[in-house]
Each structure stands twice: as C-alpha cells, then as structure tokens.
Fold each of these.
Amino acid sequence: MVAYFLISIARALGAGIRDGPSPRIMAMLEPTSHQPDTRPAPRGARWSLGLSTKLLALTVAVVAMAEIAVLVPTIANYRIAWLSDRLAAARTAALVLDAAPQEGISPDLTRQLLESVGAKVIVVKREDTRRLLAASDMPPMANVHIDMRETTLWTAVRDAFDTLTAPDGRILRVVGDPPRGADFIEIVLSGTPLRAALLRFAATVLLVSLAVAVAAGVLVYLSLNWLFVRPMRRLTERISAFRENPEDASRIIVPSGRSDEIGTAEEALEEMQRELSQTLHQKSHLAALGLAVSKINHDLRNLLSSAQLLSDRLATVPDPTVQRFAPKLLAALDRAITYCEQTLSYGRAKEPLPERRDVALAHLFDEVRETLGLQSGSGIGWVVDIERGLVADADPDQLFRVILNIARNAVQALEVRAPVDPERDQIRIKARRKGAVVEIEMGDTGPGIPAARREHLFEAFVSSARRGGTGLGLPIADELVRAHGGEIRLLDTQVGTTFRITIPDQPESRHHRRERIRA
C-alpha cells in the first residue's frame, strides 16, 4: 500500500495540480532515464563505493522509509480533515437554512451558502424524511459515496490513494454527523478541489520529509562515521601499510586508547603486528645465516672428516698422553661432523615424502644402539621393552633418524654426570601398538629438561640437552614424525626426560593388516 501510495503521488504531481507544482518539485520527482550511462567512471569512483558511501546511503534510506511511514497516514488525515471542514460548514449552513422561512431564502443567499460550503447539494435527514435545504440549478449525479461516520485508518489510506489517482470532475456524496435533531447530513460536491488540495499538501509534506530524511541521515552518518568508519578506515590503512613491509616497525599501528571494541581490536592488531614483525626479522637473520652456513658447511665437513682420519691414526700411537686425549678429540670431531650434517639436513626446503613400509622396531633399535656405540661396557644402560614382532608402518630411514636424534640427545644429557653408571644412567624404550597406531616412548634417567626450554623444544637451534648441543635433533625429529601424520611430545615425568612418538598406519596398511589378521 505504501508503494502504491507513493507512486500515485508521483503520477499525480507529474500530471500537475491546479496551481501547478514548482519546478523544484518536478525536478525531484522526474523519473530518471532508462538509457545506460556510458560516461567513463571518474578516477575516484572506487572510493564512492566505500564503507562511508554505503553507510550514508543506508542511513538516508532508513530515515526516508521512516518518513514515508509517517507521510502516508498524514495525507490520509488531511483528506479526512478537508471533508470534515466541508461537513462542518454544511451543518452551519443547514442551521441557517432550517431557521429561515422557506419562502424567505433568496436564490442568491442559497448560492452563497453553497459556495461557502463548496457543495452543490445539502440534505438533512430527520426521522423518515429527507429535506433538501439547498441545491444548485441542476444537481449532478454522485459517482462516489463517502460515509465519514464509519472511517477507519485503512479505509482512509485507501480512499486517499483513490482520490489521488481519480480523474478531475468526479462528484462525491459525503455523509456525516447531522445538526441537532437530525439523523445525518449529506453534501454533494466536486472531487476536483479535494484532489488539488491533497496534491498540494502531499507535495509539501513529501518535500519536507525528504529534507528531514536527508538532514537526519547526514547527522547520523556523521556520527557513525566519527565513531566507527574513521577508526575502521584507520585500521584498514595501517593493515595495508604493514602488509607492504611487515619488517618495518614504524608501520605498526599505535592504539588510540579507546576503551571500546575498536580499541581492543587496535591493541590486538598492534600485538600481532609487533610479534609478526619480530618473527619475520628473526627469520630474515636466520635465512641469511642459513645461506652463509650452506656455503661453508660442505667444505667444513670435508675438513673435519680429514681431521677425523688423522685423529684415528693418533689413536694407534702408544704414548699414554695421546691415548688419554685421542678419544676426546675423536668425540669432538664426531660431534662437529654430526652438527654439519644436521645443519644441511634441516636447511633443505622440504624433506622428501616418507616411503612407508613395515619396519621391525627391534632391529631398528639395535641399529641405533650400534650407531651410538652403546654396547656393553659403554657406561650407559640400554633398556628396550617392546612387543614381540612389533612393526611400524613408516619410512625406515626417516624413523631411524627420529630415534637416533632423540637417543643422541639422551646420551649427551647423561654424559653430563660423568662418570656414567649403567645402573643409574639409562636410556629406556617402550613400544606397543594401539589399534592402528604405534606408540614409542623414549626416556632417560638424566637431569631432565629445564622448564625455560620446554616451550621451545622443537624450535631450531634451541639445545634441549646441554650447552654446546646442536639444537636441531628435535626439530628434525618433529618434522619427520609429522610427515608420517604422527606426533611427538614431551611427557611429564618425575625422573629424566621422556618423549612419546605416535606413528599411525596408512589407510591401505590398516586394510592389509586386518586381512592378514583374519587369515
């Protein structure tokens, strides 16, 4: 109904009223052309589609809808008031005509009374008779009947819409409350003056409503723009500036100190940008360091290998002093070579994907023990508790590296308490299968890992055992285990250090294993 009502106003104003609408109103209500605008978009057209423009348009639209919701009943009430004024004038004229003798009323007085009312016929009904108090020379036939005694808001809006869209020259029969002693009074009048007055009033109210809507929309927009849009624009600009150069600390946002949600967002953004900038700065240094290390690491490893060969020859010298220091020299060279190999391994862009197959864990643990030289008499106990015939679905070489790195860290931690005792200093390994997952627990009885280093165990170049360690064993182990879809984590134990490694089977391996179990 509201849409039809506005359309009717626009059409009626476009058709013109008695005095003619002002050019400003016609310009406002002139329908836009349906021809597409082929002009090129201005350079700042992109900004016109920003949040500010959308907010302004939405605000004006909402306020305009509120004004329209008030405009429709206002026009309907104006029509009722206009007709009520005519009925009131008719009641006054009826009292005058009823009090005067019938033969004493001149035609000129009757015409003047009808003109003052704006009616062509005035009729009063009393009991069962209807008295024609005044009428023009030729009373016209009424086209529309209106009973003002039974008017509701809905019928008023509907009749106002009908009045605006009706053609000129329509005749109305209006019935209303009568003077004293009568049943009702009715008048017959032309609908053209009513339609012209209603159009003028609708144009004025529409113009005022639009002005109020624009003014209110601008005020609300300015308020919302100051409270929300400008801070959001500032956040966006700072994010864009930070994205261009995240390592530039000057591009980090400075919180405005607001206590609302935007202030909280600014503080969170500042913290995130600062941490990210520091992380990228650190990684840039690590990348530069890795590039330098990669250039010298290969040659350094060759030099250390040559030194190790010479040291092996020193071990055959019978001099007691040489015999006392040669093992330490060999161990130092071995650790240096291992550090070079781990640095190169960790510096690869990506580890190769695991080539998985069934790996006998008992044999794998024996290889690790031999590699570390932990045979009987080494001073470090080696305790293995695994299920008989336990196999894991894994890449044997990568799983070997995982176990070796963790075991080497355990050996380094136990050697701190030299001289070592196999009854006290032990590496303990447990392995079992839980459904489609193999769990391996590797622990030692050493001094444990300090609390300050627990949060950075799997970060590169953070030693987990003792000063001078490589700090690459656990990051490499973590990367290889995650490549298998598993997990490695530190357990809370009262003695030493214990890691739990989980290696899940591949879906295909699970199917084949179930088939073998059924067989």
Amino acid sequence: MAEERDANSTVILGAATPQPAQSAIHQNALPIGAKLGEFEIIDLVGEGGFGIVYLAQDHSLHRKVALKEYMPASLASRGHDASVSVRSERHRETFGIGLRSFVNEARILAQFDHAALVKVYRFWEANGTAYMVMPFYSGQTLQDALRARDDAPEEAWIRKILSPVMDALAIIHEEQIYHRDIAPDNIMLLAGDRPVLLDFGAARRVISDMTQALTVILKPGYAPIEQYAEMPGMKQGPWTDVYALAAVVYFMILNRKPPPAVGRMMQDSYEPLMLSEMAGRYSDQFLQGIDRCLNVKAEDRPQSIAAMREAIGFTTTSAAPAHHAPARPVAPPPVAAPSAAPSAAPKPAPKPAPKAVAKPVPATATDHADEPKASKLPLIIGAAVVVAAVAGGAAYYATQKKAASPSPATIAAPQVTPAVKAPPPPVATPAPVPRFTSLTAAIDGALAAADPRFTTTLDTPATITVGSDLKLTAYSKADSLLYLFLWDQATDKIYRLTPSEKDADNAIKANGSFAIPRKDSAKFAAREPLGTWRVIAMTSEKPRDFSKTPFARDGDFLQVERGVLEAKLATDGLASLFGTPQCAAASCADHFALSVANITKEAAPAPVVKPTVPAPKPATPQATPSPSKKAPDSEREYMKRLNKDLDNLLGK
C-alpha cells in the first residue's frame, strides 16, 4: 500500500534497528557519545525538518530511551559547542515560539499515562534548545504495515487498532487538546499490533502557521476543511480528529486517501464506502459510520469520540484510562461468631454457597507491558474475596452446628480464643534526599520530580535589552502559588523575584496567569555584563518555607551566589533552592510544577546622533507696501486725475 511519508514529520520512535548516524549527512545531529546529563547518545533514529530523535542510554535507570531534540533546520544551526542558535535575527521570534510549543507538547504528554499515547519521562531546556525523553519502542508504522499487506485488512483487525487510539483521543479531548495530525505514518504498531499514537507536532504547526506554509502541517486527505482556515462556523474540536481517524480507516480499506477536503467543498468527488467495491466485506454499520465521520461539514460528523464509537458499532468502551487510579479491592467484612441459644431448636444447616470464581480478564490491545494497567480486575478479585469469605463463613457455621448437636442441656459455652497482639508496624526509613553537585543538575532534578498533574507555562521574550525591565507571564493549570527565580549566568547570581518585599501576593487561580511586573511591585532591570538569564517558575500547591535556604536580602529581592548555593545543594538537595512545603503534619507530599526559559541580554542600541548644522539666518524682510492698499497721498492724486478726465470727457 503506497503512502508517502511526510518529509517534515519527525520520527518519534524508532524501528527495531536504528539508522546509523552519518555526520556527512546529518550535519545538525549531535555526535555519537555526546552526553546530556545522564543520557548518552548512542545512535541516530531519525531527523525531520523540526526535530532530531536519538537513541540514548539512560545511565541513571540503565535503559535505552528515545531522546528528541527541538531542531528546526530552516531556522537554526548547530554550533561547535553543541549549542543551537538561530540562523538570522528575523527568525528569532519564530524559533522562540516553536521552542515553547515543543516544551508545552512535552508537558502535555507527560500528564497522560495511556498505552496508546507516547509517554514523556522528562523534558528540559539546554544548549539554546529543548529536549524530551520517551520510551524507545521497536515496531513499524501503520503505513509500513499496510504497505506490506497484499490485501485490505479484516474489520476485526481494524477495530483492534481503532479502539485503543480512540481511547487515547478521548482522554486528551477531555483536556481540550487535539492531535490534528492523525495519519498512517503517525500510528506505530508494536508487538501484537498494539498501536501508539505519535507526533503531536506542536512546534511544527506553530512554526508553519507563522511562515504560512500550510502544506507542511496539513496532509491532504486526512485534514478536514476546518484545518485549512479557522473561521466562524469552522472551529476545530474533537470532530477534527474524528475526520482524520476515519480517513485513516478509509485508506486501510480502499488503499487510497479520501479526496482533499478543500476540493470537496467545490465539487465533492468522495466515494462512499457503502458504494465501493468493499461493500459486503465489512459490516454495513461500520462502513456507514466511517462515511458519516468523513462528512465535509463538521456539524454533520460525530461530535466526539464517544459518538464515533456509537456510529461505527462499538457497543462497549474499554476499561478506565490507565492514568486514572485503579479501584482498590474491597476488604471482606468480618464474619460474626454464631451465638448459641440453648432454648432454640437446631435449624437445618444452610446449603453452602457456590464458590466464587474470578474469571480472567482478557488482555486488550491497550495493555502496556511496562505500564500499570487500569482494568476491572482488582474489583473482580475484591468481589471474589468477599463472596469466598462469606461462603466460607457460612460453611464453617453449618459444620459447627452439625457437630454440636447434643441435647440443649449439654451444650457448652463457646470457647473464646485470646486475641494475639499484633507486632508493631516497622518504622519506615526515610528516603535519602537527592543531592546535586551543580545548579544545572538541580534544575533538571526538579523538572524530573515535578508533579505531572500540575502544569506551569512561561511566556518570556527571547531577548532583553540592557536597561529594560523583565516582562513575562506565568500560567498555571491548577490553583497554586508562584515562586519565580532568575539565574543571571553572567554574574552567577540567583535571585528570587516572587514573592518580593513589595509584593507578597503570589497566588494564581486555576487556568489563570501571573504577569511580571505587577502594579506597584518592584521591577527587575537587565544590567551588564551581557549574557543569559535563566528564568525558573515554580508553582506549588502549598506555601513554601525558605528559612533554610541561603538567600539574602538584596534591595527588593533575595539573591545568592551560585557557589554558595551549590554548596548547599550538595548537602541539603533541592530544599536549598526551592524550600519545602508548609503543612500541618510533620511532612506532606510536595506537589509542584516547574517551567524554565532562557532570555539573552543584549546591549542597548547606540543612540543615533544627527550632525548639527547651523540653521541659516532668515533674511531681513523688505518693507513693501501692500498691493491692496495705497498710501493716502497717492489715493488723492489718483482721484484728482480721475475727476479731471471725467470733466474733459463731459466737455466741461
């Protein structure tokens, strides 16, 4: 089955055998053996127009991972020191916006834990760019799998691929996140044909939006009409992914894409599956449902993944998403000891209850070998334990009643077994506090330890001119408190900007923002020497205690030398920089999120001095009589001549 791969898409996950890195071809790729923290690059997986994916060894957890680097080749290039810089100043804004989109995509994916979604272990910014680390899977894309087939796949196989993908899309749609790039080359099939949805491509889309290169972000045939232009009545939403996923099924069945949506608006040449040569091979409801999902007008399609499921004949949904906490087994209730009533006639023994059998739950296509499953199995086992306990208690009660059947006068009082005192619970040994030898390692460690349920985003300029005040906006997904730090790498001083001496308010509402500077608050200005600011925004669920940090008052802000801070980091860990959460108990869980951005200080442009040229002196005006007025004497002479001429004319 022929289908060209999008030349601008980034290969996120590799095949079984990675491509060998060739420096002559991949000039922008990092060399084999390069190290980024605990990750060592051991091979090159793929390179696209907007990113590079490496096979890396995680020396901390001793596993191989896929490491993706933000690298838009048309905007930036690699320096000799492995850093990434823009090719031209006119590309700086576009590069910066794409970088933030790349980080936001990593942050979004890190929130979810579903077998059909790429899992992001961690992400960070360094070398003028950003990185994200993901599992390294062996498999092939759906596009390659279809190309290897001789005929169209069976309906059961298509449904097996569809179900986990729809589950994953339903999860991200709940957070108003849409994939918008579903195609056969963005669905990978792992062992057992388990699908994984790849490449959200946020950075690619935003860069293409800014450069107006629609052909880069839209795959004709898979993109619905609303992706060509966002306008009133054509908004994007869950129905956008519904169209693209249905187009993938269309391709799986007919070995060709649907006609491009923009052409269908002029003249619809779409061939319904129900009228195709494949009618009869697949169920009518399945084909009719896919046809409905491929309606050009968004309002004529199913408006959600749940509606799509119903349209194509999925009667039940799969188990609860894996990122939800599984239900705990219900503990069996205590069985009361039977009381002996001497005057009561013995009752016939009840029939023993049938034994509860916990039926095995078949593994679905959404199961992940390395991730916790969320299914109904704990509930089934818990219910089985309860039923078995009740049945066992009833049987024991009947046996005891049958054995103790002498006359009522000889019935002895039940024996009471003294309670055995339970041993005291073992004292939990506190986990060792992670320590860091450098500030960079501490920031990376905090990024890795952040709670994925909290989301913090920074909107900062890429550059700031010396003499200008810092301006930025922090966003938070949850109700939280903002702690803003700035590392001036030119002076090696770290400042805590928020909360400050003048403005102690640092609260952010859920889905709200916090802008710097604030009214009546202190401003932080850029000063020489030139260099880079590294801004770290932390949002914390609880207020934080900084009493054991080495920060000292410096005007309106707190600051510390890097050497002093790193000495504390080596002994006290992250608490030296970010403090500790305050709570009523002796200790509590630390729920926080972190976002990091770099700002380059630039020299102020030299003032343009215009040459001083003495202005010419105005010429002395000559006093000239107004042409409309005559001097009084001249007027009298004129009147005399006029009267004389009139007298001559009249013959006087």
Amino acid sequence: MTKSKSSFPESTNPHQIKVSLRGKSILDNPRFNKGSAFTREERDHFGLRGRLPFAVDTLEEQVDRAYKQYQARETDILKNSFLASMKAQNWTLYYALLSSHLVEMFPIVYTPTEADAIADYSHLFRRSEGLFLSPPDIDKMEEDFLDACEGRNLDLIVVSDAEAILGIGDQGSGGIGISSAKAVIYTLAAGIDPARALAVTLDVGTNNEDLLNDPLYIGYKNKRLRGEKYDEFVDKFVGLVKKYQPKSLLHFEDFGVSNAQKLLARYRDQLSIFNDDIQGTGAVTLAALQAAIAVTKSKLSDQRTVIYGSGSAGLGIARQLRDATKLESDGKVDSKEAASKFWLMDKNGLIKNSLGKDKIRDEIEDEFIRQEDDWGKDENDLLEVIKKVKPAVLIGTSTHTGAFTEEVVKEMAKHVDRPIIFPLSNPTRKCEADPKDVNQWTDGKALMATGSPFPPVEIPGQEKKYVVAECNNALIYPGLGLGTILSRSKSMTDSMIVAGAKRLSELAPALKDPDESLLPEFGDAAQVNFEVALAVMAAAKDAGVAREEKMPDDEDERRDWAENKRWEANYAEYVYDKDGLK
C-alpha cells in the first residue's frame, strides 16, 4: 500500500479555500458546511441558491440561534445529543458555540454527561464518526486505517480501548465517544484543526455483562482480548500510525490499569505518545502542587507525600512528581531517592515489601515499595500512616468517599502549618473529602485542589473565601499536545511535561493571593494551554527532539508563529475549483 498524501497543505491565504464539492455534497460535509451563512456569491458558485432560505446570517447570529435551541433541551443528555447532531452538520458553528459558552457546556460535551452518553451509546447511536477497529478484521486493519486517513496528514490521533471510561468502566465500542470528546477539547483549548484529528476505538471486546447481554449492543460482542493477541492487535495499530502518520501525536485514553503503563512504556520512545490518565493527571497535579509549595515557600524535594489510591492516576501522579523532583535537583537526586519521599496506599493498605508480591501489582516500581521493617499490621490504616509519616502532602485518587476524615486531616495539620490536601477522585460523590470540611478542620490553613468543581469555602474568622482549585486535565493536556505537535517532536519527553506543568503553576492566582486558586480558571483554558504549549516547544528544542525546522529560535517570533498555527472557528471564503478540497 502507498502512503496517503495530504490534501490539507498550508494555505497561502487562510481566509480563502478552494473546494470541489457542490450542492447537497457541500451541505452534508460538516467541515465545509456553512448553512445559512453561505454568501450570495458562494450560493451561486456552489449550486446552493434554492437549497437555503434567502437570508444570509453571520456566524454570530447562527450561534445565538443555536444557543436558544440548546437551552430549550430540558436535560443534560438531550443537550449532549443536540451538540453531537450539530457537530455532525457544521464544525465551525459547533466550535463557535462551545467557545462562546465553554464553562457552561464543558460538562455536557465531556464529564459527567459524556459518560452517560457513552454508557448508552448503542441505544443513542444514529451516525458514526471516527475509526472502529476490531479483532476479526485485523488482517484488514491497514486498509481501514488508510481509508480513514485518506488525503489527510494528521496532527492528532486519540485512541481508547474503552476499558476504564470516565469512572464508569468498560464500555466496549462506546469508547469512540471518549476519543471524540478528547479531540474536541484539543480543538477548543489548543486550536487543533478538527480536520487534522482522528478519533479511534480499539473495540477488542468487553467484559461488561450488561453490554454483552444487550440485543442492541453494536460493538464486538465477545469477552475482551487479552495477552499476546491483545498486544499484537495494539502493536499493529501503533505500527500503522508510525508508518503512515509519523508526525502525529498519539493520545492514549482510558485504557485499563493493567495496560495503560505497559503501552506507554513500550511505545513512548518510538513516536510522540501521551497517556492522559497517567501523564495528564500527573502533570496538572504537579502544577497545583508547585503552586502550593510556592505559597509555603518550600521545595518539591522537601515534601513528604502520601498518595491514597494507586491505580493509573495515583501511579501517574507519583511518577510525575518523582520525575519533577529529579529534574529540579539538576542531577543531585536520583530516581530512588526521589521516590523515597512517597508513601503509596491501595486496597491492601500501605504498599510495602512485607505485603508480598501477590498483593503488589506488577506495574508498581520497586522504588515505590516501602522497604522498612517496622511497619505493623495496624499501620495499613490511613490515619496510622499519617501519624508515622507526618506528610506535608496528601493526595486522594481512591474513589473512597470520605476517606480523608476529620481525624486524618487534623492529625496531618498537627505536623505542618499549611497542609496540602488534594482529594482528586471523580465524580463528586466519590471525593475523599469535601473542601468545606477540610477547611474547617484545619482552621482555613489547608491548600486544596479537587478533581471535581467545588464552590469557594468560608475561611474561619474572615469575610473572604478560599477558592478551591479544580485539577482539570483540560488545563494542561491540550497545551502539552499543541507544543508537541507544533515542534513536531519525535517523542514527548519528561522534561517537556515538567516544563508545561511549571508554566501552568506560574499562572496560578494563588501566587498573588494565597486564598485564591492553585490553578487558573477553566474559562481561561485556551490562553493557559497556549502558554503551556510555548513552554513545551522550548523544552522540546532543548531536549533535541523537535523536528520542525520552521519553528523560530526567538521567543517572541515563536509566539507569533505558534499563534498563527492555531485553528479558530471562523468561516473562510470558498472558491469553487474541481481540483480543490473534498
């Protein structure tokens, strides 16, 4: 098979595009459809006069009309369905509407509402998008991949095997929903051209009995592929990305804990690979922690950290903080010494040598396993660990509701003036502690970040309130991706991720007022991620992995160059050309 050629060359006039589609074909193409915004001249040239109402709308008028239609939907799932339908009709209007109401609509197109849509995917299904790959067609995978990529040079490929979706677990073929949603956020928050992004689901079966017993389930109705056959399937897919789209970023999303780290370790040095559940969660937590320690005027290497919950998120956070500690020391601290500052806990209690190998998962590195001999059986309890470790930082990724009890929090506050407490589990009902309780138990001294949005909390004895940061991955992963894409990096290095996290922490409102948030507001996600991307580009150049020869060396020139590369939801002028874009 031959390599697919791009039909998306850089335009000399980005406001004018040559298009070969006419009539119904252009109206049915969401990339080029303008609906009522086609100009009189375009209606003449593209055979649209009788196909559209007479009036010509502006994009702003279309957004206003669409928002009123959106508001008329009574439930969140109906709003999600409305937006999905709009996306299938008109990309520009879809992204313009979302950009105009980002904070309001983000929970609708992503968590928590998208999780409901994914769980009911087979029942809501009307029109497919993206690429579905399943084991029975493994011999035809190359043909199917090339068909999806025909005429396209991709910047971004988001792939999921749907084993661990948004806190709702194994969702089989519904995983295309999370891949699509992540790609949408890349466009909204980083300006990735949606025409240069591809959502993929590796539909390798499901162990969800509800799906297997559902007569309407539209996925591969078999138990999940495991072992060598699973590895072979994923390896073939990654090989196709390397062969045909070698300059794209491959984003892994919501893979099960047993595969997530294994796949990241296997492929991250072969091409630009990113796992949001591991690296994105780790990076945004690192940024919040860096802001917190700036408030406490300490160093990362000074922190003693207990991580309660050691799945993909908890391990990803531990690894990210460990790697950042190493980089902060300029080689004075090795990986083992950096890891010694962490105490990890899971359902078996503290992860320590005396548990035995049968109770310690293979993906947990030896350096995170506590080797001390003086841990008793009673010290597997979180409170007992807090008493012994006396940590400055407590991070929750356990989904154990209320695990950070009053006794635990007060014990921690005995040993540190400003305890750093991050109950990160999603959704809200699974959070380890309510920030208002933590704030009360520490007399307003705790520095907090959560995985779900919480309102500001009262500070005892003061009129002002403490703003609780939301550790939302969308504040950083689009910027990490944009910086990697623009620099055409051959890999996403640890130094690039740490540089992005450092830049995000520098934008924290808490650096100006310690009662403000440890992270920027989500409404500023687009500008925040652009700043992250610039830091990532610089780090890629320093690491020697950047391949983009046109990327300027001068920082100001690089900023302007990068700004001009971002896709925006605006209508271009179309010129009919039979050899133009399709």
